[in-house]
Amino acid sequence: SRWSDKQSKVLGDLAEEFSVSTSQLERLTTAFIDQMQAGLAGDQKSTDLAMIPTFVSGRPDGHERGSYLALDLGGTNLRVCLIALKGNNDFESHSKAFKVSDHLQEAHISELMDFIAISIRDFITSEHISSKIVEHPSGSETLELGFTFSFPVTQTAIDAGMLLRWTKGFSCPGAVGNDIVQLLQEALNRNEVNVHVAALVNDTVGTLLAHSYKHPNTFIGAIFGTGTNGAYVEDTRGIKTMTTPTTEEMIINIEWGNYDKDKRFLPVTIFDNKLDRESINPGVHVFEKMISGMYLGEITRNILLHLIDQRLLFDGTSSAKLNQHWSFETKYMSQIESDTSVTLIPIAQILEQDLGIYLNTQVDREIVKFVCQLVGKRAARLSAMATAAVIRRGLSVEGRLAGHGYPLKLSQGDHAIGSNVNKNGTNVHESTDSVVNQGLQPIHVGIDGSVFEHYPHFEERMVEGLTELLGPRTKDIVVLGIARDGSGVGAALAALIATKNV
Ligand code: ADP
């Protein structure tokens, strides 16, 4: 290498700090499973995982049919969708976005809800859309709607949820402490819009349901985008916080972004601590801050400045842009990691055009790429850890994943999948085909988010981590897939489940 001794030493130390060994992953997984258990038992003191019951108690298998509405309110855009489920794992989706003005974000909640009701009416009565409403599921003229509402709520039923607090710039009075579904239903009634709000859904749950329509028995829905979170299917007998479960399974919203907020297990570095301290929510969502799109660029920026300050990069010179918080976008990391040329000229272009660093040598560019690889790889391995923990939980609880044909009651220390034998005592075979032939179904994980979708090698690094944790057969059994539009088709499917009880 053309690195100086000092460069080699400092970068070697960084590599050490950012690598997460298999045994570290093991410890994190075990602690994650323990915290899932504590959350399900309602022991909130011993866990950072909220483990919220969603009241969604069933999964689609792709045969469902009918026209449903979905509504997504998560920021400055309101999106209304019509989903026509075709019944053969296929659906058609039409949507329209409406801008939520600054005024509406602070107006009284009844004004915001009236705006939503009227937007829905505009959408469903437009000629283009009304002709697409082929099948009214309930036989009546009322359309059923699933509502993805990306603000903190506590749910008491699939169609009831109280707003805890506003975030993301909203502050409408009259909403906090009230049932969001009821507020919307009243506005729909007031404006004589013939729509019934059937389900309130979190985006991870929508992702799980959307994926399940294409891949029945999807076990996990996960987001690796601006933030990160996951939802999975739990045996209701395992949910101690539910008094009288009436169904066998229920989707749990893990809220895993908050895992280990006290940093007892996570390999946090000074760069992570700096980011956390300077974030809008210090001390929480520490795990999310090591993984998701909002933060990876900032960790990288912190490391680059650390190298600059030791004169190991860019000859010790930063730029006004690079000195600014959050100026190094995660998207740049994707572009940098995909540059496989020898001279790394594309990286020079990012450094010059986006970051104002005009003097950079090829060695500088190699170092920048190296740093991105460290941060990106750690994120993918930690993502694998959370996913593996949920799968292990599923395999270790009697009854769960039973439909998949896997042996039950594997102990936690077991390399669950790797050491798996089926009921006949033979080893699980190599390929997904033979897995299916033996009556074992692949475990599908539906994933949404730009980081998973666009970050180079993210998936491959995740699979590597999963394999270390779950054993050599992982690739054949655990199937990661991109699940788009959880807030559209996923919410529509939640409305269907709520009204049909599939
Ligand atoms: P959201 O999670 O908000 O619904 P996305 O899944 O698109 O939306 O995630 C947005 C996040 O992904 C942002 O934090 C952004 O920095 C990051 N991002 C956008 N493009 C890329 C990319 N090409 N590679 C990696 N991260 C990206």
UniProtKB/TrEMBL annotation:
Give the EC number(s) under which this enzyme is classified.
2.7.1.-
EC supergroup of this enzyme: transferase
A single GO cellular-component term from the record reads: mitochondrion
Q: Which UniProt keywords apply?
A: ATP-binding, Glycolysis, Kinase, Nucleotide-binding, Transferase
- GO MF annotations, alphabetized: ATP binding; D-glucose binding; fructokinase activity; glucokinase activity
Record-linked SUPFAM superfamilies? Actin-like ATPase domain (SSF53067)
Q: Which gene encodes it?
A: GLK1_4
Q: Which residues form the Hexokinase N-terminal domain?
A: 13-213
**Part of which pathway?**
Carbohydrate degradation; glycolysis; D-glyceraldehyde 3-phosphate and glycerone phosphate from D-glucose: step 1/4
GO annotation (BP), single: intracellular glucose homeostasis
Q: Tell me which residues make up the Hexokinase C-terminal domain.
A: 220-496
Name of the protein in question: Phosphotransferase
User: What PROSITE patterns does this protein map onto?
Assistant: HEXOKINASE_1 (PS00378), HEXOKINASE_2 (PS51748)
Cross-referenced Pfam families? Hexokinase_1 (PF00349), Hexokinase_2 (PF03727)
Matching entries from PANTHER family are given as:
GLUCOKINASE-1-RELATED, HEXOKINASE
Question: So what family is this one in?
Answer: Belongs to the hexokinase family.
